[in-house]
Amino acid sequence: MGANGDIIKGLYDAFARGDVGAVLGALDPAIEWREAESIRYAKGNPYVGPSAVAQGVLMTLATSIDNFAVVSAGVIDGGEMVAAEGRYTGTVKSTGTPLDAQFVHVFELRAGKIVKFRQYTDTLQWARALGDV
User: What angle do CA 17, 20, 22 make, to 5 degrees?
Assistant: First the structure.
């Protein structure tokens, strides 16, 4: 695995430890973060900058989902483009509905920082768990 793949593996390790500082530290100051279309969190797309990601995505998830986890099952290192597959798990606080949704994340990196992020996930499962449908 190359350096960028190792950076992304480290990102998932930081998520697992709950180390938000390390997660945000991996992001470029001008990151463009896009949540999957049709998911509640996509309303802020694109989230630009680590602060927007922290407030619009990470804090929202942390406060609305108990035991939220982002677990990578594998990283595909394509140099400047890195993809990861895995699962989101947790229980939505407002509905009590468990979440176990697959994802693919696509990252673009430059100079050791994540400059673009795109999420692909089971948006129907998310909508059902969140009580949106």
Answer: 85
Instruction: Write the pLDDT tens digit of every residue in 5-54.
Output: 999 999 999 999 999 999 999 999 999 999 999 999 999 999 999 999 99
CATH number listed for the domain at residues 3-130: 3.10.450.50
In terms of C-beta density within 10 A (0-12 exposed, 13-18 middle, 19 or more buried), how is residue 96 classed?
exposed
Query: Distance between CA 64 and CA 44 in Å, rounded?
Result: 17
The CA R_g of the chain, rounded to the nearest whole Å, is 14
50: cis peptide before it, omega within 30°? no
What's the burial of 119, exposed, middle or buried (CB within 10 Å: 0-12/13-18/19+)? Answer: buried
Name which of 58, 113, 101, 76 is nearest 2 in CA terms: 76
Domain boundaries, the chain: 3-130
Contact yes or no for 90/6 (Cβ under 8 A): no
